[in-house]
Amino acid sequence: MPSSTNGLGDLEQAIMNHLWDTPTAQGEGVTVREVHDTLGAAREIAYTTVMTVMDRLSRKGFLTREKAGRAYVYQPATSREGFAARIMRETLGDLRPQDRKAAVLAFVDDAGDEDIDALREALARLESAPR
Predict the structure, then answer these.
(1) Contact status, residue 61 vs residue 48, Cβ threshold 8 Å
(2) Boundaries of domain holding 72
(3) Which residues pair with 30 in a beta bridge?
(4) For residue 76, what pLDDT is reported?
């Protein structure tokens, strides 16, 4: 059952965080065994549970996988930032246009100075980009 606003359960989120934080996952990928060895040290969890959850994350489009010998090698389908943007797009996309505008304005109202500066930079890039 999802326990966070991003729709991922605790184990799904732990797996995604592990893959985003593991340099080899970004390049050559990681196996279920490698993920289980790391996550299993912190919590009691069966190898088959990790395998099932990673398979589901792959089917949901959050992970990619390729056969490497007898095992699959997994990589994140997108960056952590790309994932957050996807969640925001999906959430905003479910709203009526006037509610979407209100949600964006509420987000900006709650943003700190660093976030506001980042938004200004992003808007400047968009405005200067050829269309």
Answers:
(1) no
(2) 10-76
(3) 74
(4) 96
In contact, 53 and 91? CB cutoff 8 Å: no
Q: In whole angstroms, give the CA distance from residue 57 to residue 25.
A: 15
Residues 20, 62 within the same domain: yes
Q: How many helices (H) and strands (E) does the chain have?
A: 7, 2
Helix (H) or strand (E) holding 8: none
The residues that bridge with 76 in the sheet, in sequence order, are 63
Tens-digit pLDDT profile for residues 26-59: 778 999 999 999 998 888 999 999 999 999 999 9
Based on the fold, state whether residues 29 and 70 are members of the same structural domain.
yes
CA distance 108 to 43: 38
pLDDT of 131 > 80? The answer is no
State whether 15 and 63 are in the same domain. Answer: yes
Determine the residue type at 29.
G
Please tell me whether residues 68 and 118 are part of one structural domain.
Answer: no
Measured distance CA(24)–CA(56) in Å, rounded? 21
Evaluate whether residue 108 is within a structural domain. Answer: yes
